[in-house]
Amino acid sequence: MKKIRTLVALASAAALLAACGGGSNDVGKELGLQNPEIHFVHALPGGSNVDFLVNGSPLQTNIAYKQVTNFANINTGNTTVAYANTGTTTPIASGNFPDVAKGHEYTVLALPALTGGDIGLIDDPFDKGLLSNSARVRAFNATVNAQNLDIYIVAPGTNIANVSPTLPAVTYKNAVPASGQDSVYMNGGNYVAIVTTASSKTAIYQSDAFNLANNADWLITTVPIAGTLSQLAPGQIHLLVAQGGNTSQPAQEYANTITGQ
Hints:
Number of strands: 19
Largest sheet: 6 strands, mixed
Signal peptide: 1-18
Keywords: Signal
Protein name: DUF4397 domain-containing protein
InterPro entries: DUF4397
Domain DUF4397: 37-152
């Protein structure tokens, strides 16, 4: 009976795929059938090129700062991840996903630390509905030794004084929504990103207007400008936007546009 129910679900998914133009990988993730996928984001300003290691072996190599690697399939179960200087297997930093599962996306980030490098880990269960064409958005704070952040993704010209943050209280080395929870869903459209320290309405960063497409899958990472570590002040942070999917492209970098600073 379980096999019959799965076949019915797959047939329904195929019909929905034809109707809404989704990708086959997305359908597999939504049904929990797709092999787990992982990718790497080099968010360590000024860092050398690195190799991304899974269970001690290089999975992707020679990754430069701001580069976002292709998603790659990995096995389920306990998985150790790390990154090392290109051509070596001695980790700069390492971490662990204790129970990698089908249908999930995993992100590993090279992060700055007060000395050397650190690592960030995100388990994304990808609970998007089959009929949804909403964009998925998540934030990660890679600005070491700095205050917590509120991030607003709002229409251009919005006064945030009476608006709740889209991604609130993003702490260093953590994601919002947290690892293990699904992303925030938003309608496609034109937006700006505004960053404040948590519970403040004073912008320390504002992007130019950008388009968030339907079905986009964004990880918005705050990083310090190269050469700085902890200054959370106008002109001292950038946003890196890593878009989901097989890109092998650098994350798009948004510079600060706060005026008068």
